[in-house]
Amino acid sequence: MSxxxxxxxxxxxxxxxxxxxxxxxxxxxxxxxxxxVERLERKADNPILVQMSRKLGQQQQQIQEILNQLDLIKHRxxxxxxxxxxxxxxxxxxxxxxxAQIKRLTSQAQSLTDTADLDSxxxxxxxxxxxxxxxxxxxxxxxxxxxxxxxxxxxxxDAEAKKAYDAAFALLKASKYEAAVEALRAFVQDxxxxxxxxxxxxxxxxxxxxLGQKEKALAAFEHSFExxxxxxxxxxxxxxxxxxxxNLGQGQAAKARYQALIDAHPETRAAEKARGRLQALQQAx
Length: 285
Known about the structure:
Layout: H1 2-44, H2 47-117, H3 119-122, E1 130-132, E2 149-151, H4 159-173, H5 177-190, H6 197-210, H7 214-227, H8 234-247, H9 251-264, H10 269-284
Parallel strand pairs: 1-2
């Protein structure tokens, strides 16, 4: 029993000794921690660090403001792009509408031009008065462009030729100009000496004019009045040949043709028109 007590005292003594030895170290560690905190506090109170921290905060704020402005600019750019796209689409639609309108008006203008080129036909296509071959004494009032059958009082065109001519002229009235050109050309070739050949050559020239074939139109008009100078269509053929020469830029030749018409057929309506056109060309030059 006494041995146990002795051992217990020994253990307690050692424990107290260990505690006594550890207390200075703990105190020293606590003191060291306090010193470190104090040093950090002193550093935190350093004016330079405070200023740097403040500047860093300001820079971060400025960066955020710039980012916000960039977002706003991006949003505005997107809105502008959308607006421009809508405007572009609207302009495309308006341009398409204008192009369609121009195309429609061009078609109408071409139709009116075709009608004007055949004004002499359209006014009298429903009737075909007969005239005496070689008669050029008709007045300006009586010489309006019309489809006439030129025969002598004792001779009528044969039925076959008249049928061929009527078929060709029907194509012209139906605005089938290309087919009319071929049919009228064939008539002029097949019935070169027929009284209606002058008329066929004249209307062949008109059909060429509608098709924009000015050189061929001129040749047809000239064939009409040169081959049949006394035909009732001769004055009209000379007038239209003068018009065609003018359209081809041959002003001097056009003036000469108008003057020749005035000299050859002074009392006709074609001559009356030729005087006005000749005067206009002379004033222009």
